[in-house]
Write a structure and sequence with these properties.
Blueprint lengths: L8 E5 L1 H9 L6 E5 L13 H12 L8 E6 L1 H15 L4 E7 L12 H24 L3 H30 L9 H11 L9 E6 L22 E6 L9 H16 L7
Parallel strand pairs: 1-2, 1-3, 3-4, 4-5, 5-6
Length: 264
């Protein structure tokens, strides 16, 4: 993506999401974008662990040894997290593990029964307030989009399971699925192991209110050396867009700059 021999090497997951930020040259660093090439393949066993392993193998020729700098947005944050765990297990150091608006996939499982009830109540109230605001202001387009997104998230896992059952019953060996279904399936199946390091979590300010009870979005029980939470403008969907790139770059710049090699 962008090469600078004087700064640290930063691996971004995934390449398309980070282009607006890199284009404004936030720091003196070399940015490399990683991408998943097998999301639409017939490999139904694709997992966060296998994808992370493939990425670790891909970055070794570029950066044989750490400390490694990994940034991941949304699902890319899960893969970056697993990469950090695998690199540590091989004896490497992690200079920075940064997750951009990536909730812990077992977030609700990290809450106490009381916290879980509060989170669900807050989530329902937040959804109702957004729907009512869109309806009252005549933004039927936003109301329809939010409703379709919610329904899609609920139906994707069910439709995938049904498709696999039908596919198996027909005796077919290959099953092609959409990238969205594949990502959703991997997300739900992933159980993050503990990471012996410090984690940077940058949250979108417009994120769902259900995470108000836990600023770390569930990661405080996985990152053994603590979680540093920062905020950036925009919603989960828009925080990486061009209109918010300058503000997000301002959050990332001092963190990445601190990793630059010190002059002798």
């Amino acid at each position: 993506m962008r090469i600078c021999p004087r700064g640290p090497v930063v691996y971004c997951l995934y390449v398309g999401n980070f282009e607006p930020i890199v284009s404004i040259n936030p720091v003196e660093a070399s940015f490399y974008g990683l991408r998943i090439h097998a999301l639409e393949s017939a490999d139904v066993d694709l997992s966060v662990e296998t994808v992370a392993r493939q990425h670790v193998e891909a970055l070794r020729p570029i950066t044989p040894h750490g400390p490694y700098v990994l940034l991941g947005y949304s699902f890319g944050g899960l893969v970056a997290y697993e990469m950090a765990v695998q690199l540590q297990q091989s004896g490497e150091q992690i200079g920075l593990l940064g997750l951009l608006d990536t909730p812990h996939p077992g977030f609700h499982g990290t809450l106490s029964p009381e916290e879980l009830e509060v989170a669900r109540r807050v989530y329902r109230a937040d959804r109702a307030r957004k729907y009512w605001t869109n309806l009252k202001t005549g933004r039927i387009d936003r109301l329809a989009r939010d409703a379709l997104t919610l329904v899609g998230k609920k139906l994707r896992p069910l439709s995938w399971r049904m498709a696999r059952v039908v596919h198996k019953a027909l005796g077919r060996k290959r099953l092609t699925v959409s990238p969205e279904v594949r990502v959703d399936t991997m997300w739900r199946a992933y159980r993050p192991p503990q990471f012996d390091g410090h984690l940077l979590l940058i949250r979108a300010q417009g994120r769902d209110a259900e995470f108000a009870c836990d600023p770390t979005m569930g990661w405080h029980k996985s990152a053994l050396r603590g979680v540093d939470v920062k905020f950036a403008s925009g919603s989960h969907e828009s925080m990486m867009a061009a209109e918010h790139a300058m503000q997000l770059a301002a959050v990332l710049a001092p963190v990445i700059s601190a990793l630059a090699p010190k002059p002798p």
